[in-house]
Design brief:
Length: about 1000
């Protein structure tokens, strides 16, 4: 039958109207259900907590394999949820982990993707958090956290636009919460965050005092800009007892109809009782109840069908006078209802660390668990910054270059997960994390090689990285008689650093591209490194020189003579330490000219190692006992100890064991050695004291002539367990500094937090566990001081640390345990490699100075160099070509205190630039300068400012402002940027490019590039 023209026009209009209605965004706060004031409004939040690896790998979790370990298949969760959301418009679901979501999304048909977009636009599917993974908050570094939110939020924005942008953080499972994380959420434009874990004593107190929801003042430097509304969930992140309807649960469904098993009244009564009890602990007539748990909703129909019934039958009670109103909701809608209620709120200024769940369970062990993985994550972050910068400078835009960079971004996002960087996963999963990161680093090396072939005169250079330099092994430099090393400085500003390269023994000449000789020397590798069982003994020496680099510099190395053949020896004391572990390593007799004799004498006199900056005093036992630097002469003793891991029946709290999560020592620390064997190497550039404390702990202490800090390079392992006792190894510095129980630790590498031993903010902690209850995460720095002296230690990876006695600082370096702590991982933290206990090697740095702000500023500069030292690229081709290479942009003009945090490709025609003021309000003030020179050098045509993550214009940021107790409440209060967001083009004059940075402020810009 043919349509009449008018009818056809009407039909077209109807179709068009339907299409418009389908595409019109009703997401965010516009989609929130009403919360009538005369009712107690129950916000049901369907969710699934999907760990990006824990007991299984990413792929095993995604595809649902290895069900004997855990029944979890993320693809089925998303398939099932999407199907169920379409059946009823009022249904809601939140999703958090972008890593899983986009793995699923990329497999979907265009029709399914269209359905999902409609669900997002209608507010039925809402993204919460939105980072690549739900990151830990103790062991992570802020640079990596920002990066992994950047990739997640950018992909959401590109896929779904404004409706895909989360408004709320959802940190429900991390084991404690940092102040820097809250500040990061605020700087990204989030309105609030919710979490589930809080110290059990504080949680009970806050519920009792109706202060489980608060305004977190997350940075004293940033003020209101860092304030974030923060709420604690009532019953972990699980459904109420009796109301978990998931297939993984044992609770009864709601049975209605004419069944003899009809339980509607019982279920409704139980739920109303639960909400009544809950309402006594929260301030408004709105309550949020999560409906979900780990890997729930694989059969979402069961969940939604029962929640539909719960909503129906609870709300039917309103006919009989009930004042409870229940509906599907989201965390953002719940937050908006609190905002609309015009209440005032208590405040929080410190953090929620450490976290404990009972008298004997302080979750402070994971600060140090899996030390080699924690270090590898930092290496991954370092190389990610290198790869992003070189990809940008060389303008690499091919599909393979983009994929290589994304692979490393994604791998690093996964590494931030709260069961990755924490070391709280199963051993096989830890190996998968390492494999994932290793492959991604190798992928990005294709970018760095291609970039350096364009940006240097070594057009045929291999630009290889030495991935085994941590054990003084490098394939190319150990074999070639001549090679080049290209140093890349990711700090952006000129830096002078000491470079160490594993080599074969001999005499070397080091020069720059102009042929100028650079002073250098050859030093022996420590005996304890040479004896590592699985280390190939191809290099026994390291070449040391000092380099000053702005961005890229190539250094040329040539061996001009080989050593004469000499006797091969091993000192008697060293052979003793090797007893029972195979043949001793045979090494060249290099100590004759460079070192004192091995101290196998019965007595060793006190001795001193010093240069123009530093003096180190050692006792007759071989221990460091005093240091002089920066005008301070202080008695400081350094030693190694270990705590014995408690063991017993895990079913009882009082017998909790130290494990991957918790630290529970059985008694006081045990000294490792009363006498230290050592060798002293006194060079012109560096002086070293090689110490061996016992068969499994050794250390090299170094002072460089041009560096005003002491370097400690430790090596621990295999930790012996023949006595059937787990051990947690610490290094400890003891001094007469009168610290009065006060010390300072960093918050994810940024603000320093004041810690008071045995003290918490606003509550009295139960410190049955005196040591572990005073441990805090040390991401980059720990310090203490009195009126005369400041002592600071800076580390190369996340570790636990504390000041258990006045004047002392300790860091936990390595752990090997024989019992599980019964918090879910299901195996002991007993790491092995090559059939033996794991050997770990690392560095930390000590600075002694007067207690002035200038001292802390110096420490912050050291933090940057420890995080991002020069990256060394090796090439066998030592000949420059005559090609003209493009100039690499320099950030050396940035004022002191301003640091290049990020530069990376943002699109085919845009670059993301992120700068930070890395000093706090006690160390500096506002810094203003023109960004135009950098803009021009990058080839910019336009520049615009965004929120921290880069995906929202800063001018569009309007965060909900919650009012603290004692202040006046008004409607429609918001927090906006304190400054006018930068927006300029190349034609604008210099004043348009002037920017100001408050202390600790990070500003993010997107620059459009001229092609």
């Amino acid at each position: 039958m043919a349509f009449k023209p008018v009818a056809a026009l009407v039909l077209c209009a109807v179709i068009l109207a339907v299409e418009i209605a389908d595409t019109e965004a009703k997401c965010g706060y516009k989609s929130c259900p009403a919360s009538p004031t005369k009712y107690t409004n129950i916000h049901l939040v369907p969710h699934s907590h999907d760990d990006v690896e824990w007991l299984k790998t990413v792929d095993q979790y995604y595809y649902g394999s290895k069900t004997g370990i855990q029944r979890a298949g993320v693809q089925y969760i998303l398939d099932s949820v999407i199907d169920e959301l379409q059946k009823e418009r009022n249904r809601r679901f939140i999703y958090v982990e972008s890593a899983f979501f986009f793995k699923w999304w990329d497999e979907q048909s265009s029709s399914t993707q269209k359905i999902v977009k409609k669900l997002v636009n209608d507010g039925q599917l809402e993204f919460t958090g939105g980072a690549w993974s739900m990151n830990d908050e103790a062991a992570v570094h802020y640079q990596s956290v920002i990066d992994q939110f950047t990739i997640g939020l950018k992909r959401l924005d590109e896929t779904f636009g404004e409706c895909g942008r989360p408004k709320v953080g959802w940190q429900i499972d991390p084991f404690g919460h940092s102040r820097q994380m809250a500040s990061t959420f605020a700087e990204m434009g989030f309105d609030g965050e919710f979490f589930a874990r809080m110290d059990w004593v504080e949680k009970n107190l806050r519920l009792k005092n109706i202060s489980a929801e608060m305004i977190w003042k997350a940075s004293p430097s940033l003020g209101e800009s860092s304030e974030l509304f923060t709420g604690l969930l009532y019953n972990h992140y699980s459904a109420p007892p009796g109301f978990c309807f998931d297939t993984l649960c044992q609770d009864d469904p709601i049975i209605d109809g004419k069944s003899a098993d009809n339980n509607v009244n019982k279920k409704v009564e139980d739920f109303l009782d639960y909400t009544k009890n809950m309402s006594a602990y929260y301030k408004t007539n709105n309550l949020m109840i999560p409906m979900g748990d780990d890997f729930n909703y694989q059969s979402a129909g069961i969940n939604f069908k029962n929640m539909d019934k719960l909503i129906k039958y609870v709300n039917e009670r309103q006919k009989f006078g009930s004042k409870v109103n229940i509906f599907y909701s989201t965390p953002s809608c719940y937050l908006k209802s609190l905002y609309d209620d015009l209440q005032t709120w208590p405040t929080k200024t410190e953090d929620f660390l450490p976290y404990s769940t009972d008298w004997h369970s302080y979750w402070t062990g994971y600060y140090s668990s899996r030390p080699t993985q924690k270090r590898y994550e930092r290496v991954g972050n370092h190389f990610l910054q290198v790869c992003k910068q070189l990809t940008t400078f060389a303008k690499l835009s091919s599909a393979s270059a983009k994929n290589n960079l994304d692979n490393l971004r994604h791998a690093m996002g996964v590494m931030q997960h709260h069961d990755a960087i924490t070391g709280t996963e199963k051993q096989k999963v830890a190996q998968d994390y390492d494999k994932l990161l290793h492959g991604a680093i190798f992928d990005c090396e294709n970018n760095t090689r291609e970039a350096l072939q364009k940006l240097t005169n070594l057009t045929k250079g291999e630009f290889e990285s030495c991935h085994l330099s941590n054990i003084s092994v490098c394939s190319l430099s150990s074999k070639a008689d001549s090679f080049s090393v290209t140093l890349f400085n990711a700090l952006g500003k000129i830096s002078t650093q000491n470079v160490r390269i594993p080599i074969s023994n001999g005499t070397y000449v080091v020069s720059d591209k102009s042929g100028n000789i650079i002073p250098s020397e050859v030093v022996p590798v420590a005996w304890s490194v040479l004896k590592i069982p699985y280390r190939r003994n191809v290099t026994q020496h390291e070449l040391v020189f000092t380099a000053t680099v702005i961005n890229i510099q190539t250094i040329y190395v040539k061996r001009i003579s080989k050593p004469k053949i000499q006797d091969k020896i091993v000192p008697e004391w060293f052979a003793k330490f090797r007893s029972g572990r195979g043949s001793p390593v045979i090494v060249e007799k290099f100590y004759e000219s460079r070192a004192t004799k091995a101290p196998n004498q019965p007595k060793l006199n006190n001795f001193t190692v010093e240069n123009s900056n530093i003096r180190l005093n050692f006792s007759s036992t071989g221990h460091l006992v005093a240091i002089k630097m920066n005008g301070i002469d202080q008695k400081i003793r350094q030693d190694f100890f270990y705590y014995r891991g408690a063991s017993g029946n895990n079913a009882e709290f009082k017998n909790r064991s130290s494990g991957a999560y918790i630290f529970r020592p059985n008694g006081t620390e045990v000294a490792v050695a009363t006498k230290v064997n050592l060798n002293v190497i006194k060079g012109k550039l560096v002086q070293e004291v090689h110490q061996i404390f016992n068969d499994w702990i050794s250390q090299v202490i170094r002072i460089y002539n041009n560096t005003n800090r002491v370097e400690f390079e430790w090596l621990i392992g295999p930790i012996p367990i023949d006595d059937k006792v787990g051990k947690e190894v610490i290094t400890k510095f003891t001094s007469p500094i009168n610290s009065k129980g006060v010390f300072y630790t960093d918050s994810n590498g940024r603000d320093m937090m004041k810690r008071i031993r045995n003290h918490r903010e606003k509550f009295t902690a139960n410190l049955t566990e005196r040591v572990s209850g005073n441990y805090y995460p040390i991401t980059s720095r720990i310090a203490l001081e009195d009126e005369k002296t400041r002592l600071a230690i800076l580390n190369d990876r996340a570790q636990g640390g504390s000041s258990i006695e006045n004047g002392s600082l300790e860091l936990m370096l390595h752990r090997r345990l024989l019992n599980d702590d019964a918090f879910g991982v299901g195996e002991a933290l007993n790491e092995t490699a090559y059939g033996q206990g794991l050997v770990a090697r690392g560095k930390y740095y000590l600075v002694i100075s007067p207690p002035k702000k200038e001292s802390s500023i110096v420490e912050r500069q050291i933090q940057l160099e420890v995080l991002l030292p020069f990256w060394n690229f090796f090439s066998s081709n030592g000949t420059d070509s005559k090609v003209q290479v493009p100039l690499v942009p320099s950030f050396n003009s940035l004022p002191t205190g301003i640091h290049l945090l990020t530069i990376e490709p943002w699109s085919d025609t845009e670059i993301l630039l992120r700068l930070e003021h890395f000093l706090d309000i006690s160390e500096s003030s506002k810094i203003s300068f023109s960004i135009r020179p950098i803009f021009i050098e990058l080839g910019g045509s336009k520049i615009r400012e965004t929120t921290l993550d880069g995906s929202m214009a800063l001018s569009d940021m309007k965060r909900l402002k919650f009012v603290e107790q004692g202040a006046k409440v008004k409607k429609n209060q918001y927090i906006k940027a304190k400054h006018i967001p930068l927006k300029a083009s190349k034609k604008d004059k210099d004043p348009a490019f002037v920017v100001s940075f408050e202390p600790m402020q990070i500003r993010t810009f997107v620059i459009k590039i001229d092609k």
